[in-house]
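Chapter summary example.
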Amino acid sequence: MSTKYLRVHRLRRIYVWELPVRIYHWLNAAAIIALIVTGFWISDPPALMSNQEASNRFLFGWVRYIHFISSYIFFFNFLFRIYWGFAGNKYADWKQFIPTSKRFIREMWTVFKIDILMLKKNGEQQEHISIGHNAMAGFIYFLTFIAFLVQCLTGFGLYAGMSGWWLPKLFSWVPAVFGGDILTRQIHHWTMWFFILFAIVHVYLVFYHDYVEGRGEISSMGGGWKFIEEEVFEENRHHTPNPESSEVVGTA
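The structure predicted for these 252 residues follows.
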């Protein structure tokens, strides 16, 4: 009589995304959506026909007001994330976003082959699994942070000439550096399209990894918890910043 063995994966439940990171993520998403929608209106305002007095409608004034409020939320939220890259846990650490080792670059190539080229060899799918961001995702987020900086500089640079507050006026030098208001506005507009493309790819990959790996990729940004194989956790323990810190609750 043959005996069959059932292999049971031991999963470890790990607190990956702290509350400040989750708040940053959703606040940033809401601000970007508001900025994109109102930005389209500002770049190409529609011709609205109405028999009402313009001062009674103030529609475009509200569009600009929402855009400016969202820009301040986006700006200060971005500053907070920079701070949290030094104050947060090892999964929020800035070293997760900048290639600082050969292992980081090797993992980027492995993820590129699996996620983009759909190529994989035996063991590579398991090899690239990360507890927090994988190397490719971390590097893309680093490029996104640079885009955040460009968007803040160009946006406040354009606003500086019409604002009476000291904060936007700190960016009054930006249009001169970028070659004038027209080119600054074009860069601001092009960067918006980068965010749209990034959002599409980001949502696709989150659903893709959640479906393929089944480790709570989607729900983790709601509650902060992810599941990972015990052996993967032990391997990553020695390759992430602050390995002695404990975000572990237990195994299942």
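To summarize the output: The domain at 12-44+57-241 is CATH 1.20.950.20 (Fumarate Reductase Cytochrome B subunit).
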